Amino acid sequence: MRKYVSIFVALVVAASMLAGCAQNSTPRPKEGGTLIVSHQDDPISFNPDWKTDDYAYPINQNIFNKLVTLDPRYNIVPDLATKWEVSPDGKTYTFYLAKNVKWHDGTKFTSQDVKWTFDTIIQKKGTAYNNLQAVESIECPDDYTVVFKLKQPYSAFLGFLAWYGTFVMPKHVYEGTDWTTNPANQKPIGTGPFKFVEWVKGDHVTLEKNPDYFKGAPHLDKVVFRIIPDANTALQAFLNNEVDVAGVRPPLSEVGKLEKTDGVKVIKFAAPSRYYIAFNMRKAPWNNLDVRKAIALAVNRQEIVDKALKGLGQAAKGFYTPAIAWAYNDKDVLPERNLQEANRLLDAAGLKPNAEGIRLKIDLPYFQGSEWADMATVIKANLKEVGIDVNLQQLEIAAWMQKVLTDHDFDITILNGFQGPDPDNLRLRVGSNGNLQMMGYSNAEVDKLLDEASQLTKVEERAPKYKDVQRILSQELPIVPLAEVTSIYVFKSYVHGMPVEDGIGKVTFSDYSLVWLDKK
Amino acid sequence: MGRYLLKKAGAAVLTIIFVLVLNFFIIHIAPGDPARILSGLDNPSPEVIQTLREKYGLDKPLQVQLVTYFKRVIKGDLGHSIVYDRPVWTLIKERLGATLLLTFTSAIIAFVLGSLLGAYSATRQGSKVDAALSFVAYLLYSMPSFWLGLMLILVFASWLKILPTSGMVNLRAPSTGILHYLDVFWHLILPATTLSLVQIPAYYRITRSSVSGVLKEDFITMFRASGMDERKIFRKYAFKNAILPTVTVFGLHLAYVVTGAALVEIVFAWPGMGRLMLGAIYRRDYPLLMGIYLIMSLSVAVTMIVVDILYAVLDPRIRYT
């Protein structure tokens, strides 16, 4: 815990220094104006904790607050809790709440709201349920203090509280009602910097300034999320000044052009998310380490970055994301590409080429989307060079989930995903009982290391365990990491105070409370 | 006529029930589990998935789900969406207006322009104008609507900067009253043009061949021999006889107004039913999909009956008994 506090203090210092520098070069924030953000699709609802809903998440960040949240660089920063303490045994988390917080309908916010929210998520199995399993009880010694008691120490707890499906909801609105159908799901009441105004289905969501926001009133009068499902249309709307912030990611092939466009800002950095190949180790020949190793040797990771990701990303080296640096093992890494060695291993595994030079025909199911199609095509070409004939199966996400996660009907597959907010995420992806572990991989030592690491409280003690896990992964290769994902933020240069620029250490990814417009 | 309509309506109801049962099984056969989709790809917990399955009755055998569904539909209740937790009918109602505005406008434009151009070509067969029109019609016929839409955006919004790229209203300058309607009309131009352009060839080709067929008939030759004005022959006798197949095509197009514009809606961010349907398919929102299919089959059935009646009005030789 001490580590978290020190990280936080360092961040606040750094952020205030940054803010200091910024004041010299840019004028004072201008008040007023409407920010228009392009947005991929309709939210499911504005109940922020019930279902997994990526299309509500950026909007909810402006309407609601969490206890703690993640800034655009994935640091844990205060939100409704101004400070917190962890007991030495790592089993008690005490949060001290801001005192001047009001719900958008004027009701006072108290610790009871926090308790109700998390009790409900656990009881009704909201989307964050899995991350709250360590919680034994939640207590409110007074209106501004919340104590979470855990069954066992769980060092990833704070990170998961800061992540997804953990927005604090108004008890006085929801208590005694069905939280899945409460009218507030259509007209949310939060504590955030902007108040909900309207949601025209399929077209836009409008928010207005909350002058009583407890961290200080935002500069903008309004934020409008304009729903544009097609990435090409969204890009044109952005270029034609119909939209100020590209909330819909532009096609990767256009990013280079955007960087050279006047009046457009593009900010890129490595995200703690990565692409990887997963083997179906339940069946031959994938239960043979030599065959998996041959694939790792045959795949050209740089070519994947260049062709599928249009150069936006980095070829993977190790077995965890380098973006969470303290847990990253840079010693035990993937081998360099070596076709000769790959062929030798395949020969040794008894997979001899037939008359046409084919050793093996395999299925590779992957999601729809041009980057996935390009990635699968590169892998197909790479594996062809060692005599493996890949049958590409493009599937929509629902069918992919059924085939890969439920039916385990595949040879190899490709996927990506968030590796954070804490390396405990590895349990999900490579632990024997991990919910996203489709490989059929099971290593008692890996499980033991992951369990131990999750119960230790000091980063210095946890890091070696995670590094050990990565060493084992590099030896057993249940997965082959391919590339690191790049976060791309695109907005007009008259938009100042974007979270990704000025919000580090202060606000979360899409919280526009610091944004102001310098437009004529 | 009354008995005929009753018979038709009865057949329509049977067809709709059959279509619904068929749809029910088809969408459940498609791989995919809504509970899994709703629990997300970043941290899908088995307990959450199980809770969702139980909540929405997805854990029950398929035939039980089917019976439950039909019991509800008979009472006029389309059920609740698995994804949105809201009544299916409410979700459909919110989108219906935008869709009908787009699809009706373009169906009518395409019908009028397509059949006029077709008739024009038929009377000048073999001329340069006829050849040019036929060429353009083939070109448009083979053009995917989403591609054509994007090209129109690039030309009229990005290059000429005279029209908005997408959406239904100008969010920079919200307006009310008459200005609001003008704003919606302004935003309607590109999507309606796209949808009309891809529909025009169907009307053009059917009208052209139908008119040129009628013009070769004996009674037309007879009028010509009697020295009647060519334009009068066309207006009074040829066109009326030739329009029936065109009306059939119009009816067919109208039948799909509810969801037929999905791709155009996506390209132009038009908040319509087509997008709602595609979303329901991706997320396997069975009740919502069934509701949309029900509305779709209803609109097909009703349009077909209306077209039949229209036939009798247009052609006095047709009488139903």
UniProtKB/TrEMBL annotation, chain A:
A UniProt-annotated Pfam family: SBP_bac_5
Highest taxon in the source lineage: Bacteria
InterPro entries: Peptide/Ni-bd (IPR030678), SBP_5 (IPR039424), SBP_5_dom (IPR000914)
UniProtKB keywords: Signal
Cellular component, GO, one term: ATP-binding cassette (ABC) transporter complex
First and last residue of the signal peptide: 1-21
GO biological process terms on file: peptide transport
A single MF term (Gene Ontology): peptide transmembrane transporter activity
Keyword Iron-sulfur on entry: no
All copies of domain Solute-binding protein family, residue ranges: 75-432
UniProt keyword annotation of Signal present: yes
The protein's name in its UniProt record: ABC transporter substrate-binding protein
Species this chain originates from: Candidatus Fermentithermobacillus carboniphilus
UniProtKB/TrEMBL annotation, chain B:
Domain of life: Bacteria
Transmembrane regions: 12-30, 96-120, 132-158, 178-198, 242-270, 290-314
SUPFAM superfamilies: MetI-like
Bilayer topology term: Multi-pass membrane protein
Xref: Gene3D superfamilies: MetI-like
Keywords associated with the record: Cell membrane, Membrane, Transmembrane, Transmembrane helix, Transport
Domain ABC transmembrane type-1: residue ranges: 96-311
UniProt similarity note: Belongs to the binding-protein-dependent transport system permease family.
Protein name per the record: ABC transporter permease
